[in-house]
Amino acid sequence: MLDRQVVKSESATIKIPELEFEIPPEAQRGSLSTVEGILLRAADELEALQEERRKVGPQTAEAIDQFLLKLRACATGDSPFTFILDDPAGNSFIENPYAPSHDPSLSIKFYERTADQQASLGYLVDSSQTADDPDGRSMQEPNAASDQVRREPHGSVGAAAGHRAIAQSNSAEIVEALFRYTAPEEVMTFPSTCGACASRCETRMFVTNIPYFQEVIVMASTCDACGYRNSEVKPGGRIPEKGKRINLTVKNTADLSRDVIKSDTAGVKIPELDLELASGTLGGIVTTVEGLITKISESLERVHGFTFGDSLDEHKRLKWLDFKFRLSKLLNLEEPWTLILDDALANSFVAPVTDDIKDDHQLMFEEYERSWEQNEELGLNDIDTSAADAAYGSTDTTVKDKLEA
């Protein structure tokens, strides 16, 4: 754990809750180190002025001595602790030594930046939207128009957009892929606001049915002000009672061209590579089998910054090169391989290459009962529909009585 490499940008803050310790962005600017190195450097910097502190404030110096013992105990692995790296710019990194597999000790959370964080990073913040009160807190101007549109700098919601959209891609690509199955009977248009610049724009929505799959809702919006385009594919209908596991044996180029709808609740497995992507990885996408493998490769290179860096030791470098080579062999179809999509909400789909899905022997769909843990993660255990069921029951009884009368 202590040997994990860490990139700390100039805007990042490091926190250790167990010690109530925080390294501000101004300290250890733009550093490339390890978890142990960062803690030891912080301890050395605190200890540098201890002699002067003992002359001025002996009690303060003694308290810092006690704290340094705890800090060095964490740096040597004698005491467990939580290492939090908070970077509003998103340019910091903690190495995953188990990559490309999941690291159970490492979690990554994306969030929208506040106005103060936007300003500290140099983004333009519209001063007409907020004003500072005597306590330094931000408050809305009282004379602002009630229908005034709140504007945020471009890119401020980029980190959260992938989580909100079930599928996000070029509008033309989405339409081209879905229109292979059916055309919309009706396209609805309603006003909305741009997710990037908050300008007023229009969103187009239609419902379509994909054979052998289900009803889906396609939403697309384009902003004339900043050029931002967004497409979303949302599942329609009720929540399925069972999860779905899709197994596809890839043997030829026709299999690579199969359309794939991967929802943001689907996990991906490739047994031949010992590769497993947890639920939510890559978000939701509409692509092909070849496109999915390409996105996995690009995502691994982007997320794991030490893949080919000069700080990577030779053993890990060879491991990554071997994985990249094996991944390229999948696209070259040097040997058959298996793609597994495991979706607890059954909102994923792989298109068949035959007119009747029963004739496609390379594609198998398997339904399974969700575990309690999966329902808990999806929030289904907390859904209480008893009140609605009672209301519908009373309505049905009233209608029945009227009909009998």
From TrEMBL:
Pfam families: jr-ZPR1 (PF22794), Zn_ribbon_ZPR1 (PF03367). One of its GO terms (cellular component) is nucleus. It comes from the Eukaryota. The keyword Zinc-finger applies. InterPro entries: Znf_ZPR1, ZPR1, ZPR1_A/B_dom, ZPR1_jr_dom, ZPR1_Znf1/2. Residues 127-159 are annotated as: Disordered. Keywords: Metal-binding, Zinc, Zinc-finger. SMART domains: Zpr1. One of its GO terms (molecular function) is zinc ion binding. Residues 2-96, 192-352 form the Zinc finger ZPR1-type domain. Gene3D superfamilies: ZPR1, A/B domain (2.60.120.1040), ZPR1, zinc finger domain (2.20.25.420). Belongs to the ZPR1 family. This is Zinc finger ZPR1-type domain-containing protein. It comes from Ficus carica (Common fig).
